[in-house]
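hey so u asked for the seq, here:
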Amino acid sequence: MQRRAFFGTVFTGLAAASTATPQKPRVGDLPMRALGRTGQKITCIGMGGARFHLPSFDEGVSLVRRAYDLGINYFDMARSYWNGRAEEIYGAAIPPFRKNIFLTTKSGMRTRKEAEAELDLSLRTMKTDYVDLWQIHGVNEKEDIDRIFAPGGAIEAFEGARKAGKCRFIGFTGHADPEYNVEMMRRYAGFDTALMPLHVTDAIYLSFEKNALPVAVERGLGVLGMKIFGNAFLLRGFSVRDCLSYTLSLPVHAVTDSTSPELRDECPVSESESGSQSRSGFEIVISRRSSICRTLSPIPIPTPIPIAMPTQEVADDGGRGASGLERWAGKTRKGPLVGTALSLEGSEVNPGMDALRFLKRSTCRPDD
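ran it, structure tokens below
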């Protein structure tokens, strides 16, 4: 399905559905995992909050309610998403079932005073007294770490919020370099969770799977995966099932899913799905991926799958973006992936390649 055609149908019929009373999800519909040492059980796929700028407000509210009806109990959010409007969607959708979900948000503020103020605003906006998990958002530079742990830094706000009951657990997210994630864990032993990019091509460059994930596992943190579809870039070479199977075969407790519209292009909507006008394209997307997750339990024992990367072909592109990598992805479509690492055969990958920089950048957008 072409993107233009998709946008012509994706938002149909949601306005009326947005006021429907949410139903209680059927217990056990989706696989659940204990989130590290927190002991909290969350669904292995979570409702991501980073793409609520794509549908309208009412359509977003309906999508959140649909996710809950499907049995999802992990709801991801950040104050920065849609400049705070995404939290307003949660505030409009979740009050009837707030006690039944694991609610998170994040703050990108680096000082105690700023972070405290942002958390109070998040709580008011989402109409809740507390969040289950509050995360330091986007630790992508060494300067971020220094500011967070400086006197009067954000870590003081996070510790204070946990003591005051405004959050039950605290964590952090890092998008750009696994070394910064490792440094955060070295600096502070009190984190409960770590959210990091984990996907089928992670091992190619600045690998979180190889460097940050083992440290988080060793420390007993709850591990949350993001960027599993690489903002839909990876779907040029892998299926949704490939991507979910790979990441969920790692020692990961859950992944976030923002139902990016590109993900639906892989599998056109059938007449039976769209003909009733009762469900939006976004709702169909999240329903399908919830169904996939049901079939992934139990996850098989991870087995590395070698994927040959024609690095010379990428290099021969002469720095013209990611065209070589796109050709590789198009040729390398394989069956369901269940593995812990990508074994790159052939010549050594050069981390300086423009194409690889593009791939890393495409999976590390700062607004997620």
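Residues 1-22, 260-278, 297-367 have pLDDT under 50 and may be disordered. The two ends are 26 Å apart (CA to CA).
lmk if thats what u needed
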